UniProtKB/TrEMBL annotation:
<feature type="active site" description="Proton acceptor">
    <location>
        <position position="128"/>
    </location>
</feature>
<keyword id="KW-0573">Peptidoglycan synthesis</keyword>
<dbReference type="GO" id="GO:0009252">
    <property type="term" value="P:peptidoglycan biosynthetic process"/>
</dbReference>
<dbReference type="InterPro" id="IPR012338">
    <property type="entry name" value="Beta-lactam/transpept-like"/>
</dbReference>
<comment type="similarity">
    <text>Belongs to the peptidase S11 family.</text>
</comment>
<protein>
    <recommendedName>
        <fullName>Peptidase S11 D-alanyl-D-alanine carboxypeptidase A N-terminal domain-containing protein</fullName>
    </recommendedName>
</protein>
<dbReference type="InterPro" id="IPR001967">
    <property type="entry name" value="Peptidase_S11_N"/>
</dbReference>
<feature type="active site">
    <location>
        <position position="180"/>
    </location>
</feature>
<keyword id="KW-0133">Cell shape</keyword>
<dbReference type="GO" id="GO:0006508">
    <property type="term" value="P:proteolysis"/>
</dbReference>
<keyword id="KW-0378">Hydrolase</keyword>
<dbReference type="GO" id="GO:0008360">
    <property type="term" value="P:regulation of cell shape"/>
</dbReference>
<feature type="domain" description="Peptidase S11 D-alanyl-D-alanine carboxypeptidase A N-terminal">
    <location>
        <begin position="91"/>
        <end position="316"/>
    </location>
</feature>
<keyword id="KW-0732">Signal</keyword>
<dbReference type="GO" id="GO:0009002">
    <property type="term" value="F:serine-type D-Ala-D-Ala carboxypeptidase activity"/>
</dbReference>
<dbReference type="InterPro" id="IPR018044">
    <property type="entry name" value="Peptidase_S11"/>
</dbReference>
<feature type="binding site">
    <location>
        <position position="287"/>
    </location>
    <ligand>
        <name>substrate</name>
    </ligand>
</feature>
Length: 341
């Protein structure tokens, strides 16, 4: 019976010259399903951010192509980077002792990990990243010579330059960013022709230009506990600073050797311990900070197979701990998130 009906339908279609595809299209709605990842949600301090790597149907789209009816079309997707997502099975984020921390994906700006990201803390020498950004606005002549003055002297950390040393602006730049030299940083400000007060005003203007609301500067080196920011805003500072080729070249140097015009050689070692040793990721630059009871800080930019992230550690309880916490969080992020291809 079924065969007989099929033959009769076929004969009818042939005699009436009817297209069976058009017949179906003009009398039925065709539904298409779409897959999507679940929506990310806010996470408490110290927790993982984002959605699991799961897919599911989120609805249907009707192609209303019936006679005399316009077909439905969806608006084109917005041109936004696709954020990484947690693997469906992932390892818990490592416990860290630092007071605040954050990991963000550079391309999408998605937060991958956070701990007290909006709590203000002393910046210490991370300040020097903003000092460098402001200095670059004045297009410094790196070959310009400068003679160290008594008023350049600042205590704290290792001092590599002394009164009467004749060096170049390039030497001051590298001493500031490689060795975190406070005296060299003040000398850089003076070599550009500014007082500290004038320069700090420009630093706060730079912070405003970056959209930073909880960041404030009172000196160009970070010796004051009133140089404050948050982990979330330090990530923005690092993103802007480490996008600069001049800054990146300096902060990726494990050491810098300078020679004064008087013939004295000074070897300046980097304060960034992550620059040495084999790792599963590439270090694209970083900056340390240390200020007594305020604790030890570090922010860095990293890459693995082209996937770039920024990390911030504020208020760590030891020199080695800030680097160990950074390494643990960076490795965890790369191991437990999936980036779009």
């Amino acid at each position: 019976m079924i065969i007989l009906v099929t033959i009769l339908v076929a004969i009818t279609l042939i005699v009436t010259n009817t297209n069976p595809v058009a017949l179906a299209r003009n009398n039925f709605f065709i539904f298409n399903s779409q897959a999507s990842t679940s929506v990310s949600v806010a996470s408490p301090a110290g927790m993982v951010m984002g959605a699991s790597e799961t897919g599911g149907k989120i609805g249907v789209q009707a192609n209303a192509a019936a006679a005399g009816q316009a077909s439905l079309t969806l608006p084109p997707p917005e041109d936004k980077p696709i954020a990484p997502v947690l693997k469906s099975v992932y390892r818990k984020a490592p416990e860290i002792a630092a007071r605040a921390a954050v990991i963000i994906d550079v391309k999408s700006q998605k937060v991958l990990y956070q701990k007290d990201v909006n709590e203000q803390a002393a910046l210490a020498s991370i300040t020097k990243l903003v000092t460098a950004l402001v200095a670059l606005k004045h297009q410094p002549d790196f070959d310009q010579e400068y003679v160290m003055q008594a008023e350049d002297r600042r205590e704290g950390g290792r001092i590599n330059l002394f009164w009467g040393d004749k060096i170049t602006v390039k030497d001051l730049w590298y001493a500031s960013l490689v060795g975190s030299d406070n005296t060299a940083t003040i000398a850089l400000v003076h070599a550009l022709g500014f007082s500290e007060q004038e320069f700090v005003a420009q630093m706060n203007q730079q912070a405003q230009a970056l959209g930073l609301r909880d960041t404030n500067f009172v000196d160009p080196v970070g010796l004051s506990t009133n140089n404050k920011s948050t982990a979330a805003e330090v990530a923005k500072i690092a993103g802007a600073a480490l996008a600069s080729e001049e800054i990146r070249q300096a902060v990726t140097q494990p050491r810098y050797v300078l020679k004064t015009k008087q013939g004295k050689t000074r070897v300046i070692e980097s304060t960034d311990d992550l620059l040495g040793g084999a790792k599963s990721y590439q270090v694209l630059g970083g900056k340390t900070g240390s200020l007594g009871s305020a604790g030890l800080n570090f922010t860095g930019k990293f890459s693995q197979n082209g996937r770039e992230i920024i990390s911030v550690i504020l208020g760590s309880n030891g020199v080695d701990a800030r680097f160990a916490d950074t390494d643990a969080l960076v490795n965890w992020a790369y191991e437990n998130y999936v980036w779009p291809k």
